[in-house]
Amino acid sequence: MSTTSVPVGADAPIVEVMATMRAMRRLRPDPVPDELLEELVEAATWAPSGGNVQAYSFVVVTDREQMARLAELWRVVCAFYLETFATVAPTRMPAERYERLKDALRFQAEHFHETPAVIVACYSMGDWTRRLAAQWRRFAGAMSSLGPRRAATFTAGLKAFGDRSEAASVYPGVQNLLLAARAHGLGATLTTWHLALEPEFKAVLGIPRGVKTFAMIPVGWPRGNLGPVVRRPAAEVIHRDRW
Question: For residues 184 and 36, is the Cβ–Cβ distance under 8 A?
Fold first, then answer.
């Protein structure tokens, strides 16, 4: 697929949008209209939400002073990543392509203060969890009906169930946001590095203690071209009927 003929706009074919949604880390400093950023968040809200709880929130940062504060923290986590995790290239990525990726990471860190917008995807099950807790007798009865062994297994799995259910209610929305950005010709990338210093990022953004952050998404007009992604063939990742 030619990078010069990548379709953009609200009517861009969804399959082509997905196939050409590269992570774009080199962004121009030109502002993105507020109404367009709101469209991206609206697209995120269309995604599935576990139990239809819709306990998501999105912090949209465009203020230059706030972006500069985030940039200071971003340079710390980026430097750590480059000095540790990024010292070994993924098995399937040629060394020179991996070096280009690291160059893009460095560029993003050096120019993060110029990022037009950052969208932080958040989720909080606090209110819903408190309402569920009031029904503890129902839970006790249901646990009893499982039998001792299965009840113990179920109890041990509750944390993973809760954590992954929250993530499953956030990341589909993040993907929708990324697809909408790509359809509008914007560059974006899903990042989670901030989680290593989440309390400091939350302090800058004034995010309440009980609210979890799941992704920071820098958004802007790309300096490079939108183009096809490079991924493993589907046939290599499918296990039919069992592993």
Answer: yes
Domains along the chain with CATH numbers: 3-128+159-227 (3.40.109.10)
- Token pair, residue 61, equals 């940062």
* Residue 130, pLDDT score: 66
Give the separation between CA 115 and CA 133, rounded to whole angstroms. Answer: 42
Query: How far is it, in rounded angstroms, from Cα 174 to Cα 23?
Result: 13
Pairing of strands 187-188, 117-123: unpaired
**pLDDT for the residue numbered 131:** 67
Q: pTM for the full model?
A: 0.89
Cα distances (angstroms) measured from residue 92 to each of 12, 23, 113: 30, 17, 32
79: enclosing H helix or E strand: helix 64-83
- What per-residue confidence (pLDDT) applies to 2? 44
- The answer to which of 65-74, 128-137, 165-174 has the lowest mean pLDDT is 128-137
Dist. CA 191–CA 241, nearest whole Å: 33
- Which DSSP helix (H) or strand (E) runs through 216? strand 212-220
Longest dimension (CA), the chain: 62
Q: What is the mean pLDDT of the chain?
A: 91
State the pLDDT at residue 233: 93
CB within 8 Å of 132: residues ≥ 6 apart? none
Is the confidence at residue 40, as pLDDT, over 90?
yes
pLDDT value of position 4: 52
> Strand 187-188's sheet: what is its strand order?
56-61, 117-123, 212-220, 187-188
